[in-house]
Specification:
The protein is of the alpha/beta class. The chain folds into two domains: 194 residues, NAD(P)-binding Rossmann-like Domain (Rossmann fold, 3-Layer(aba) Sandwich); 97 residues, UDP-galactose 4-epimerase, domain 1, CATH 3.90.25. It has eleven helices and 14 strands. The strands form four sheets. Strands 3-2-1-4-5-7 form a six-stranded parallel beta sheet, with helices on both faces. Strand 1, helix 1 and strand 2 form a beta-alpha-beta unit. Helix 6 packs parallel to helix 8. The longest helix is centred in the first third of the chain and has 22 residues. The relative contact order is 0.14.
Amino acid sequence: MKKILVTGAFGQIGSELVPALKEKFGQDNVIAVGNRNIPEGFKGLVEKLRMPDRDGLESLIKKHNIGTIYHLVSLLSATGEEKPGFTWDLNMQSLKDVLDLSVENKIKVFWPSSIAAFGPTTPRVETPQRTILEPTTMYGVTKVAGELLCQYYFNKFNLDVRSVRYPGIISYKTPPGGGTTDYAVAIFYEALKTGKYECFVKEDTVLPMMYMDDAVKGTIDLMEADPDKLTIRTSYNLAAISFTVTQLAEAINKKVKVEVTYKPDNRQAIADSWPKSIDDSTAREDWDWQHDYDLDRMVTVMLTELKKKFEGEN
């Protein structure tokens, strides 16, 4: 079979998508591509590439006979605001390189969009599939531009490119990074390490979230879906659970005591520009998307697995 290439393979999503793809398609059929954070002792095919690098990417496609690319390379929201020029160059040029090479080599593509594509003028409750996209961050701007670019390549070149708008992703395997939704990961780390957490958004902030296993399942399910049933070639809304920071803290406190204080920073304004809940009925109708994790189940798994992780580090 033709092989699968995953760029950004050691980021938050890639670090869990790659093992799932290996389990489904075989250890030798998935090539993980990274630049930094490549784990020591990583088992499997791995290539190092600093993107954007069209020639380097083309070389990997030829070398490994690639038939599918999951292009996950991206600079996130809060980090992207510190380097907006670099964010545009990295996010957009690397995507265009992937799309161009995929047209030339008849490759199927997955590219992730985000709730960052929305903005303060977007309806914030049950945000529709087709709606206003006026983001206030460079990360969000690249997501809107990327969605339109993907649709253009589908319409112009019949490229099979598929996408979802991820909500905040919660996972125990990678530590929180530079995202606005990362408070929902950091709170678990601090609950177990110190019993205290200073949150960078207000207690009544509501954002759409999803446990990582659901995100991985949704990604693979979309890529396996019948192309004739897909009605969206920009990016599908994808949703699971929405909650306030207070509700998350209360759910954690049922199992582990954590004292939460609040000191909103620049990420509050970003959070306030994003939806509180998402209407993902189109994904559920087109390719039978459904999530498995509610808030309580997610909290239980996060605490259980992080305890194991910390015990293994000591």
